[in-house]
Amino acid sequence: MTNIILCGGSGTRLWPLSRTLMPKQFVKLFEGESLFQKTVSRNQKACDSQFIVSNAEQYFLAVDQIEELNINTSRYLLEPVGRNTAPAIALACFALNAEEIVLVTPSDHLIKNEQAYLEAIEKAKILAQSDNLVTFGITPQYPETGFGYIEANGESVLSFKEKPNALTAQAYLDAGNYYWNSGMFCFKAGVFLEELKQDSPEIYEASLSAFNNAKKDEMIRITYEDMLAIPEDSIDYAVMEKSSKVKVIPSDIAWSDLGSFESLDEEIASSDNIINIGSTNNLVLSPKQVATIDVDDLIIIDTADALLVSKKGSSQKVKEVVKSLKEQNSELPNIHVTAHRPWGTYTILDESNGYKVKRIVVKTGKRLSLQKHHHRSEHWVVVSGTAMVTKGTEEFTVTSNESTYISIGEVHRLENVGKIDLVMIEAQVGEYVGEDDIVRIEDDFERK
């Protein structure tokens, strides 16, 4: 059985903790482990391999975190733009044997009753072997209005329900045969594709064309044009609500999608460096020393570049904050002060009109793209390690306490040719120092 792990998502429901380029599944919230890593470890007990479907801008986060788990049974499919779950699953299934049973899971869910979860998977696997499309219905703990519901009679699905109002959600809970729709599935790859072809032929044909045109080497890369041509739809709307082969496994597995700070508050404790004076029932996450005085029921999320303060019960409005920031063309919804890139990381140390100072770390054997900038010059100072610098037609090494200068418009590249991490300070000076002032001429990671 193959675990298809869906790594999409904008990463903004837990802003500023998560961002578009560091969504919640990759944030290490659980004693140094991320939800993505927990997903891989948990499902490895039931599956032989992982097939990770990821945005092209995030896949290297998955690669790094998979390496930390010492797992080498993973395949990757990269989407240049998201088209929802039906196309993502279809593209992965085209790469598998039609008889292969797949367990489709999001990468950002928390499941605490692992034994019950593994038992549910075994039941689903048996049903999948008989050519059923199996979904997992979560036993509801309260009348939640933020989830879709599945009406069931045993393992038979009677109907799918949209997110209800509070009164309807309570009625579902009282009825006893309604389950939260978990977004997890189990079926044969070929059976899913047959049902997709029958029920949503436009998605099937466009996905097949995109897969056939894809670059396939150490990973599968879908082209931007082909991905954009696929109609956008969820697996629920495209297949599950139309198929006659759907079954459900009722699952009481201590599940949470951690879709809000309120749900996160139920799973993790505040930071250790908090002094509470007359304060109770607050979630405070901060790398700094924080003191609270006579305040209750607050969510306080502090990062290097942003601070969120919310009443408990109101944190869903963070999406309005993110929308406002995007309207201001702010980078805050997208990226942290420390940004993870395929070659390493950079941290913004200081920034103002006309300049930006970064600490850059390049991993051994990695190099940045061959590139140029229209609006800024760069001064590089090596702190430790050995850099191979390409500047115009020149190539030369720069070592600790040495520096070099890149003028505006000059083609350049940075590479770590040493045996330790390359650490350097970059000072950018120019009329515009935004991250989008970059023209990539050549790139090992095939970024545009």
UniProtKB/TrEMBL annotation:
Location of the Nucleotidyl transferase domain: 3-266
Enzyme class: transferase
Protein's name according to its UniProt entry: mannose-1-phosphate guanylyltransferase
Signal peptide: none
Gene Ontology molecular-function annotations: mannose-1-phosphate guanylyltransferase (GTP) activity; mannose-6-phosphate isomerase activity
Listed EC numbers: 2.7.7.13
Catalytic activity reported: alpha-D-mannose 1-phosphate + GTP + H(+) = GDP-alpha-D-mannose + diphosphate
